Amino acid sequence: MRVTTMVATTALLGLSAGALGDVLYSNSFENTDALGGKYYDTGDANVAHDLVNNAGEAWVDVDGMDAGYIPFDPASVGLTDGDYVGVTNYTGSVGAFYDGDQGYQMSDTDGIMSLSSADFADATSVSLALFIADTGYEDADYVQVFFGGVELLSIGGTDDGGAALEAAAGSWFEVTGEVAGGALEIYFASNSGSEALFIDAIVIEGGVIPAPAALALLGVAGFAGRRRRR
Questions:
Q1: Strand 196-206 vs strand 103-107: parallel, antiparallel, or unpaired?
Q2: Sequence-ordered list of residues with C-beta below 8 angstroms from that of 106, at least 6 positions apart, any chain
Q3: Closest CA to 84 of 169, 191, 193
Q4: Count of alpha carbons within 13 Å of 219, Cβ hemisphere only?
Q5: Fewer beta carbons within 10 Å, N or C terminal of the chain?
């Protein structure tokens, strides 16, 4: 299990590796048009496929992020039975979102749900906030985060996976990493309505990494003025 809240010296100073570069992508899921009711997947739950937005239902695809579904083996109903996934303003599990009034939820996936960004060849750093609902989990359940095919986070899916998920549950935590281009991929596997993952505050940055001495000076200033997270 690896729960990463800060990665490398630059993050400890309050700056990501690409802090002086450009923000290539950011999303805190604040578009109120994306809110809706339960999501009903119209695809075949036995086959891996792309998920699409349905009228009147919460959006699973948002600007710059695409959702997908991968069946368990053997496959189950997946999201065809109606589930609370996609953009949400429901705070019953999280208390409050990490940034703003909305976030992105995956729950009761009865398979594996994914959320992936476009490919950013110039990306140098990524950060996002996750909240694992505080409930019981089976060992087969898991949360994984990759960027450019490199694993940034993996909890669950092992002999003690349920206990690992439960230990990480109940509060927001940051996943950050220095990267070398690629796409962000988030995966959640579960089979119960109480088992849920919430996602917020995705930021992908790119640009020239500053020299260590300059970064240290700027990092101290950045840390002093950094907004306290929930």
A1: antiparallel
A2: 85, 113, 115, 188, 190, 196, 197, 199
A3: 193
A4: 19
A5: C
> Can you give the three-state secondary structure of 112-173, one letter per residue?
EEEEEECCECCEEEEEEEEEECCCCCCCCCEEEEEECCEEEEEEECCCCHHHHHHHHCCCCE
CATH hierarchy code of domain 8-224: 2.60.120
What is the mean predicted confidence (pLDDT) over 34-63? 97
CA 71 remoteness from chain centre: 20
Please report, rounded to a whole number, the percentage of residues in the chain having pLDDT higher than 70: 81
Asked if residue 64 has pLDDT above 70, the reply is: yes
Bridge-based pairing state of the strands 103-107 and 86-88: antiparallel
DSSP string, the chain: -B--S--HHHHHTT--TTTTSEEEEEE----GGG--B-B---S-TTS-EE----TTB--SSBTTEEEEEE--SS---TTTT-B--EEE---TTTSS-SSSS-EEEEE--SEEEEEEEPPBTTEEEEEEEEEE-SS---TT-EEEEEETTEEEEEEESSTTHHHHHHHH-SS-EEEEEE--SB-EEEEEEE-STT-EEEEEEEEEEESPPPPHHHHHHHHHHHHHHPPPP-
All structural domains of the chain with their residue ranges = 8-224
Cα–Cα distance for residue pair 136/114, rounded to 1 Å? 21
